[in-house]
User: Fold these one by one.
Assistant:
Number 1:
Amino acid sequence: MNRGSVLVVAAHPDDEVLGCGGTLARHADQGDRVTAMFLADGATARPGGGAEIAARREAAGVAARRLGTEPPIFFSFPDNALDTVALLDLVRAVEGVIAGTTPRIVYTHHAGDLNIDHRRVHQAVLTACRPQAGHPVERIYAFEVPSATEWASAELGPVFVPTRFVDIARWRDRKAAALEAYRGELRDPPHPRSAQAIDSLQLWRGATVGMPAAEAFAVLRQLER
């Protein structure tokens, strides 16, 4: 895995751990500077959700410390309504963070997720990361989010087909600890966003490629300079 700056562009606090928490901890331990940014507040779509914003942000800070990553960056675009926000505004938010962190690697959402915020973030990232000369981003990977990726259909966008697998066996406990910071977002089994199901997914992704535990990604772009 490359040394340097890594950026996670996520819709909501908890997506970064669900999608690539083990990989982020691995990056951090290998000397990369890892930052997560969140475009939506993750709470206002719920009844009385505005009161949850501070708690969700605090949880994101705890998760970052447990993963060994930088303090997260928050935006306040409306939850589950990023389709009502001009794409240019989302792109500018992403571009601003890229300018400040100069990442070589970006992790973000899959284009075909059920959640509309995820799909809009994906589009904003690809727009902000157009491969022009001098742009720092060399690699873009899409992660899967339980209860958003597998619940979608081909009518919404491409089906998630992973083509990159990262061994996270040594970082499995760190991911679990970071998820615990978001305990209010977890559900009871057999929900796909239960701790049991999330662990089962990483065991399954690992088993499909001969690893004890893995996180899976779709390669969106990979430049070799």
Note: The two ends are 15 Å apart (CA to CA).
Number 2:
Amino acid sequence: MDNDLVFIHGAWVTPLCWEHFEAYFQQNGFHTLAPPWPGKEVPIPQQRDRPSETLRGLRIAEIVDHYGRLIAALPSPPVLVGHSFGGLFVQMLLDRGYGAAGVAIDSAPPRGVFPFYPSAFRSLGRVITTWKGWRRILRMPFSDFKYGFVNTLSPEKQRAAYDRHVVPETGRIFFQAALSIVSPGSPTRVRFGNPARPPLLLIAGGSEHIVPPAINLSNFRKYRRSSATTAFKEFQGRGHWIIAEDGWEEVAAFILGWLRGLPA
């Protein structure tokens, strides 16, 4: 396997969320890329003050196609590592044949995986009940970030993470994801039985609120009929901020070991 690795961030944040993982995998011989979603190319202060109009109505398909073009332009298929919505995008990209292998961390669920657990609804209820939120650029209040992202952190670290990372977001993707359960044409669908899909590792945080581990486990079980390599790992006591909270090194090391254990 070549040592190119592409990180795909989730909603409400930017590629800065990967700062620890990027340094770790670079130190372990990988050439890493962490491209932003469309509309998130400018510095974080500018995103907060003047969010790009690109975010207004930005769709899941547009984001996935954006990453597909970037990956296709690389000299060889990279490893894909995504968090939250980025984990869903990794699953979709692998299903389309992009990448040499993929890791989906606290992944938003594809169509066919039940998403409406109580803590998940509490984490995102404000978004999906916002009037005409599908056509707006939304902002996450600290109270929602504290409950949904960083519930395992101290109050000081919760505030620091919010101030450092959180940016406005497109509302469209949340409505697309929420409606996937009743939409046969949902953009979040993947072919769970696809035998040609590259290897996939799903990682869950045991104390996660936005994507409870039961969702990730259900997601993993959807792949049981596929002959493609699929693995699952739950880290107890970790929240949605698993990629940057204390103990992130254990998660990164597990991913590295899994990648190195794949057939050449």
Note: Residues 4-261 form a domain with the Rossmann fold fold (CATH 3.40.50.1820).
